[in-house]
Amino acid sequence: MAEKVNTLAGHSCEVFCAELAARTSTPGGGGASALAGALGTALCSMAGNFAVGKPFAAAFEDELHDVLEEAEDIRGKLVDLIDADADAFAAFSHAYAFPKTDPLRRQILEAATTQAAFVPIETMRQVARAIELLEHMESMASKLLISDVGCGAALCASALTSASLNVYVNTRSLANREHAAELDAEVDRILSAYIPRAEAIVARVTERIRKGA
Predict the structure, then answer these.
(1) Is the predicted pLDDT of residue 94 greater than 80, yes or no?
(2) Residue 191 sits in a domain of what CATH number?
(3) Residue 115's closest CA among 146, 77, 86?
C-alpha cells in the first residue's frame, strides 16, 4: 500500500484523533467509519499473518494467502476512503457556498451531494467484504489470536452502522429521489445482511474464549 504523505490517513493516531475532536468538519464521521473498517480488516490480516507457515495452517495455506491478499486490498481502499471523505466534504462545502442566484448552483450541489453519499456507501461495501474474510479467519486463526478476530468483527459492525448514517444524511438532500432510494435500499440490504454476520462472529468468539476452547 502506498505511503500517505500530508493526508489525513497519513497522520499519527494522536494527530488524527486530535483533528477529529477539533472544531473542524474533517475528519468527521465518514473518515472515522472508514478508519474503523480499516482497523477491523487489519486485525483479520494480523491473525492470518501469524498463522502463515505454522504447522496447524498447512492444510489451508493457499486459502490463507488468498484471504490475506484480499484483506490487503480492502484495507488499502478503506484507508483511501478516509481522505476521499474529506475531499467530498470540501467539494460539498464549495458547492454550498455558490450564490443561490447562480443557475448552476443546484446542479453543482447535487453532484457534490451524490459524491458525499458515495464515499460512505463504498465504505460499507468494502467492510462487508472484510466481514466475509473474518468469517474465514475465524476458523483459521490460532487460539491465541481468536479474540483479535472477534475485535475485528466488532469494529466492522460499528463501521457499517456509522457509515450508514453518513449515507442517509446525504441521500435525504438529493433531488434525484430515485437514486436516493436506490442508495438507501442498498444500505438497508448491507446492514440487514452483514451486521448479523459480524455479531455472530463476536458471539462465537466470546463463547470460545469463555469456554476456553
Answers:
(1) yes
(2) 1.20.120.680
(3) 86
Render pLDDT for 14-31 as a digit per residue (tens, 0 to 9). 888 898 899 988 888 999
Alpha helices in the chain (DSSP H): 13-21, 29-51, 61-96, 105-140, 146-171, 177-211
Is the pLDDT score of 133 beyond 80?
yes
On whether residue 24 sits in a domain, the answer given is: no
DSSP 47: H
Q: Does residue 55 fall inside a structural domain? A: yes
Q: What is the DSSP string of 100-149?
A: TT-TTHHHHHHHHHHHHHHHHHHHHHHHHHHHHHHHHHHHHS-GGGHHHH
| Burial label, 5 (beta-carbon count in 10 A; 0-12, 13-18, 19+) | exposed
On whether the CB atoms of residues 198 and 157 are closer than 8 A, the answer is yes
Give the range of the structural domain holding residue 109, as residue numbers without chain letter.
Answer: 29-211
Dmax of the chain from CA atoms?
A: 70
Number of domains in the chain: 1
pTM recorded for the entire structure: 0.91
